[in-house]
Write a structure and sequence with these properties.
The chain has helices spanning 4-14, 30-37, 49-68, 80-86, 100-109, 113-116, 130-150; strands at 22-23, 26-27, 90-91, 97-98. It is mainly alpha-helical. The chain is 54% helix and 5% strand. Helix 3 crosses helix 4. The protein contains 7 helices and 4 strands. The longest helix is centred in the last third of the chain and has 21 residues, at 130-150. A hairpin with a 5-residue loop joins strand 3 (90-91) and strand 4 (97-98).
Length: 151
């Protein structure tokens, strides 16, 4: 039996994401359309729903960008972090979704969580190398920006 996330990602990948990006004043942003397309409640046992929605919305955003190219206004993407998150999970030859540990790592390594939630511990950020710091910095900035808008 395939897990909810495996089935859901498969449905996302098979869906038609061509939408009209025209708005009364300007254009619609694919990431906001992707976020709206996801259900508020996800039946998850192990993951924080916000991070799963974050990764899945990036995947949907990339589908919207690819499928809307050449149809109306040019889609405006969220950038490299979104592109990376969209490619985070892949299907193995056995049909199972790979990369779920990366979602877990993303939620564990997000040190901004200590300001968002009442935890019994304090997280301290450490970077083992300069490359890791460059890769994690955009995620921390985007995570903080998304959370402050979320309410």
């Amino acid at each position: 039996m395939r897990s909810f996330l495996t089935r859901f990602v498969d449905e996302i990948d098979k869906a038609d994401w061509r939408i009209d990006l025209r708005a009364p004043m300007g254009v619609k942003i694919p990431m906001s359309e992707a976020w709206r397309a996801l259900p508020e409640q996800l039946p998850l046992r192990y993951f924080d729903p916000w991070y799963v929605r974050f990764v899945l919305s990036a995947r949907i955003e990339q589908h919207i960008i690819e499928q809307c190219q050449g149809h109306g206004p040019a889609p405006i993407g969220s950038g490299r972090l979104s592109e990376t998150l969209a490619d985070l999970n892949t299907f193995g030859r056995n049909g199972l979704l790979k990369g779920l540990g990366d979602i877990d790592l993303l939620q564990i390594c997000d040190i901004s969580r200590q300001y968002q939630q009442k935890l019994d511990y304090v997280l301290a950020g450490q970077t083992p190398g300069s490359g890791s710091g460059r890769n994690l910095e955009p995620a921390a900035r985007l995570s903080g920006a998304c959370r402050s808008r979320r309410g």
